[in-house]
Amino acid sequence: MRYLLFALCGFLIFSCEKGLTDEQQLQADIEKIENYLADHNLTAQSTASGLHYIITTEGTGGHPASNSTVTVNYIGKLLKNEKVFDQTTGTPNTFPLANLIVGWQEGIPLLKKGGKGTFFIPSALGYGPSGSGDIPANAPLIFEIELVNF
Question: Which end of the chain, C or N, has fewer beta carbons within 10 A?
Answer without folding.
Answer: N
